[in-house]
Design brief:
Length: 282
C-alpha cells in the first residue's frame, strides 16, 4: 500500500508528542535511591505502586535552561559528589537518561542504568571540560598554570601561552564533539501543512542536552558573564545572539540558575567586598 504524504506527515507530527519530542524532558515526583548488592554504588528510579500511575512533577526543555550545564559541572567543584547531591539534582532536573539508545520504555523514571557512579563520572567530566575552557578563555589571557595542570602536561611539553591555549581549546572541542556523537542527532519534524523542518539539536538524554548547551557556550557570539570575584574567571552565564531557529529549542523552559547572579560563590562575593573596602581606604 502506498503511503500518502499527508499520512506520513501526520504520523511524523504525532511521533514528536512522545517523551523525546520538541526538547521535552520529564521530572517525576518520587525518585528513590536503590543500593546495588550492598555496595557503594546505587541506582535511582521512580517506584511503581499497584494501580497508581507515577506523577509527572514537571516538563521542561533543557536547551532553554542556559545555566544547566554550568550547574551540573559545579557539582564536582571543591569536593566529592554525594548521593544526596545526586538525588537533589534528579528531583530538580530529572534523570540523565543513561542508555536511551536501548529504548527503555520508561526512560525518565530511571532504573538500573541510572547509576550513581555514572552520574558522578559525567559531572566530573563536565567540570573538567568547563574548567579547561574557562582557563583557556580567561579575560586577562590564558591561565597557563591551570591549563598545564588540567591537561597533565609535563616539563617537556613546552609552548607559548598562545600555543597552550590552542591545545586546551582543541581538547575542549574534541571532548564535546565525542559526547555529541554519542548522545545527539539531527531530527525531522512533520508540520500540519505537510512540510518538514529539521533540527540539528536532537537529543536522546538529558546528558546529551547538556553537552549541546556546552557546544552553545563555546560557539556563543554573545558575551559570557563571568564571576565578579577577584581573580575568578568562572562563567556564570552566557548568551548567544544567533541560536538557531530550531524546533528542539522551543517549548517550556525553566529559569537558568545563574542568570541574575554576579558571583559564583559567597566566598567570591566576600573577597570582592574586602577588596572594595581596602581600595576605599587608600
Amino acid at each position: 500500500m502506498r503511503i500518502r504524504s499527508k499520512d506520513f506527515a501526520r504520523a511524523a507530527s504525532e511521533s514528536v508528542k512522545d517523551e523525546f519530542g520538541y526538547g521535552r524532558w520529564l521530572v517525576y515526583d518520587d525518585y528513590k535511591v536503590v543500593r546495588i548488592d550492598k555496595g557503594e554504588d546505587a541506582y535511582i528510579k521512580v517506584p511503581l505502586a499497584p494501580g497508581k500511575t507515577p506523577e509527572i512533577l514537571d516538563e521542561y526543555n533543557p536547551l532553554l535552561v542556559r545555566g544547566l550545564f554550568l550547574e551540573f559541572a559545579e557539582l564536582a567543584e571543591g569536593g566529592e559528589i554525594t548521593q544526596d547531591d545526586w538525588l537533589d539534582w534528579t528531583k530538580r532536573w530529572g534523570v540523565l537518561g543513561v542508555g536511551w539508545r536501548e529504548g527503555p520504555v520508561n526512560l525518565h523514571r530511571g532504573g538500573r542504568r541510572e547509576k550513581f557512579s555514572i552520574f558522578k563520572s559525567e559531572a566530573e567530566l563536565a567540570n573538567w571540560v568547563l574548567r579547561l575552557y574557562q582557563a583557556a578563555t580567561a579575560e586577562d589571557g590564558p591561565d597557563v598554570p591551570r591549563i598545564r595542570e588540567l591537561l597533565d602536561l609535563d616539563d617537556d611539553d613546552t609552548g607559548s601561552a598562545k600555543e597552550i591555549k590552542k591545545w586546551a581549546l582543541y581538547e575542549v572541542a574534541r571532548t564535546v564533539q565525542r559526547r555529541l556523537i554519542g548522545e545527539c542527532f539531527p531530527r525531522l519534524y512533520g508540520l500540519k501543512d505537510n512540510r518538514f523542518v529539521h533540527s540539528p539539536s536532537g537529543f536522546g538524554s538529558l546528558g546529551g542536552a547538556m553537552w549541546l548547551l556546552m557546544m552553545y557556550l563555546i560557539t556563543a557570539t554573545g558575551k559570557s558573564k563571568r564571576c565578579a570575584g577577584p581573580g575568578c574567571d568562572k562563567i556564570i552565564h552566557f548568551d548567544s545572539s544567533d541560536l538557531p531557529d530550531d524546533p528542539e529549542i522551543r517549548g517550556h523552559g525553566r529559569r537558568g540558575p545563574y542568570k541574575s547572579r554576579e558571583y559564583c560563590s559567597t566566598n567570591c562575593r566576600v573577597k570582592r567586598w574586602q577588596r572594595d573596602q581596602k581600595n576605599k581606604k587608600k
